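Final report, closing paragraph on structural work. Over the funding period we assembled a curated collection of sequence-structure pairs, and we close with a single example.
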Amino acid sequence: MDYLIVLLKILTPFILGLLAYRFLPSYVEQKGKNLATKEDIGKITDEIESVKNLYKQHYDLSKTERAFYDEMIKAIYNFVAEIKKYEYENGKDSATKEVMKGDEDLRNKFFEFVNAANEILAKAFVFLKEENYMLLKEALKVDNSFAAMTRNLLYAMRKSIHPNTKLSAETDTREISY
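Its predicted structure, as stored:
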């Protein structure tokens, strides 16, 4: 019986060593491959999520910009329509600043336009990219002509959405005349 215990004491480490030598390296190698694959998948997933988030931010900003611009275009053209209506009834180029100051209806429409434009610009200041806000701000620096200001604003809006645009608001936009 003592021989059996001694034999088991000798053979057990040998068998365990043989098993470890034979199977442990392939087990560790496979575990290493699985870990590397898991890490690679994690990196790829992180990159995909990063691209998705970048696209979502750009898309959401574009939606925000378009909503601002839609609002601004409506405000501009509502006011321009009033000017055109006045000029249709009173002669071309008759809606000067002096006339607007004297005509209560036009003056009120002008104030409505200015208030709407200021509200839109305040939102633009907060939500739009800096360069797009600056485009809008520069477009408003026209003093003498509402038509020129309208063209400048349209161009600024287009330029912020399509930075490489070749279109010009002055030559490429068309309106129906009265």
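Residues 59-172 form one domain. The two ends are 119 Å apart (CA to CA). We thank the funder for supporting this effort.
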